[in-house]
User: Fold these one by one.
Assistant:
Number 1:
Amino acid sequence: MFQRFEYDKNNPLYAYEFISDNRTSYKIYKPLEKDKRYKWMFSGGSQADIEGLDQLNLNGDVLVLTKSLKDCMCFRLLNIDAISLQGETNKLDSELVNKLLKRFKKIIINYDQDEEGIKNTLRLNKEYSFEYFYIDKHKDLAEFIKQEGLKEAKIMINKKING
């Protein structure tokens, strides 16, 4: 099935490509779409698609597990590696965790501080003993950056990660 999407400068559209097990899928994002049913669209994606995985450095001190591709991109602006599952309720594969822990000294969870985010943060903390933190004063890192600025976001995140 082929679906056509139109965009212009007042209604941008972004496509993210995932390649997994020799198959390609896309996640389409329309940030200004009023109808939430059409804000995100998928073409053949699965829970196994890990957002941000292909953009990671080879190794590092910290990897943040966050809740969205948008937040992965925001962490990247701060020079911090981040990945996201396709949803906060999705299971984190233990084989992937083992591979990532060979590349990064620690994984830290940063989900939203709402009911679903807290529940799944605590589930992952219990399962893997990952540290976690929440964003101050705002829903997520993208909102924090928009309201407080990149410099303040870097200060806040470095305090969270480094104690």
Number 2:
Amino acid sequence: MNKAIFLDRDGTLNVEKNYLYKIDEFEFIPGMPEAIKKWNELGYKVIIVTNQAGVARGYYTEEDVENLHTFINDLLIKSGAHIDAFYYCPHHPTHGIGKYKVECSCRKPKTGMLEQAILDFDINVAQSYLFGDHDSDIEAGEKMKIRSYKVDGDLFNIERYKF
């Protein structure tokens, strides 16, 4: 089995920008690229799990989300790091439009994205961690018995945690 670091995206991996999808607006949280590189070196799968209600609301497309995720990984690869997978929920139960206005099992604090990643990567949750900036992130991780930590979104200091 593998161990994993699950990260929320906006406010945890990158600086919070309202409904971020534009590549030129992307900015890492300071310290996060270095932390990802360290996790890669320690043998953790690094997996993003992110709610993307902007898709549900019609602000941007799933293709926009996927293009941004490719860009993020390309930046990390240049610094010797990488993200193993990106999982995102494009739904919203009340503010979605069309096919995206649904009560789904993937929108955090529900656990669908985590469950899928655990299956896809054969993850041992007892050896894994989750970091997020919202209570819904932490709730999802705790439901799956993953050690979960709320971060402040200003600076990520990997030295605060024991790996």
